[in-house]
Structures are given as structure tokens and as C-alpha cells.
Amino acid sequence: HLHIRLTWRPNGPPRAADIDAVMLAVSLPGRGLVSAGQLSIHADFRPDARHDQAFVTFSASVEPLSLPPGARFALGRQIGELAVEGALNGPWPSAEGSSLTARATAWRDDGGSLELRRLLIAWGEARLDATATLALDEDLQPMGAGTGKITGFGVALDAMAANAVLTRSAVQAAKAVLTLLANTPADDQPEAAEVPLTLQFRTLSVRQVPLARLPELDW
Which tens digit of pLDDT belongs to each residue from 108-118? Predict the structure, then answer.
């Protein structure tokens, strides 16, 4: 089941978009099938937004999300729940007579930013609840800062080390920091810690401890 609704005004761009799907499967060339049990997306557009206003506000959720069977994932093929709410701030980039790189550069230079008001990822035994503000650096790569509550970090970090997603040294450093910041869990409850997160030079860090290096964004 798939339902798409677009709201337009005469002679203008879309004002809103809604997508709802049940049992949606998408085939990715060379990678395999990605499927979602339930998917919901909503977006509001303001083409006349100024520098300090959002030209897109959005929310999206999917549960569960099954990843391609041909690839190997440290925390398993199924993400139990993925949800995000946020806004793209800054003036609407013009699409006339310019490349995607030029539009991204203009958006950055005009003070554009991505505000993640809520990010939830429940994957295996781990869960992340976070907020963040991101922008583009001089190389058009994401950078920013935020805060996150990480639940079940011990098991997740061990799985990442076992699958060579992170190095053993990075896992040990991250565990040491998170353990110091973690609250004492109740009986049979996973450990949880609230930590500052930073993304700079494509490196994601937890309290200044490098955790992972992200792939380069190719415009």
C-alpha cells in the first residue's frame, strides 16, 4: 500500500508532501533489497524563507527497516525503528542554470544549516536518541555538534569491533568515556550515557574521542 499526497498552489512549487507506505520494498542495483514495514514522511516547504527561517520542515519514521541480505552489518540486518524530525534552514537554493555543487555552495554561504530536532535509531540491542545542528564545511562535507543518549553501548561497540567497523583502540577509548558518563543501570537494564557529539573533518567523535570516519560526500 502506497499513498502520496502533494499540495500545490497555482504557478508555484509544492507547499507540502506526505508519503505513507505499508510493506514497501526497494531494489538497490548491486546491493539487494531494502524493505520497510511501515513508512511515513511529511514535509512542509517555504520557498520564500529568509536566512534565519526554515525552507523545509520534515518528519519521517520507519519500522522495521530490513537492510540488503548481501551486505554485512555489525548490529544485524534489521533496524527496529528509525525516526527523524528537523528543518533545513536558509534561503531556498535556486535550481536554474547551476549545478548541484553550486547550489550546495550557495546554500552554505548563505548560512544554511540542517537542524535535527529528534533522531532515533533502535538497532539491535542499542538505541540512540539525539539532537544536532549540521552545516557544510569548506569542502562541502557535513560538520556540526549535538547531544545524544546512547543505550546499550557496550554490546554495540563490541559488535562493531568484531566486524571491523571500528578499531579495537577506538572501541576501548569510546567504552572508557561512555562508562564514566553512564548512569548506574537498574537490574537487567542496559547501560546508558548522555554525551556530546561532534562531526568535523568527516570524523564523528564522542567527547573528543574519535569514533568513526565517515565516507566523503560526493556532490
Answer: 998 899 999 99
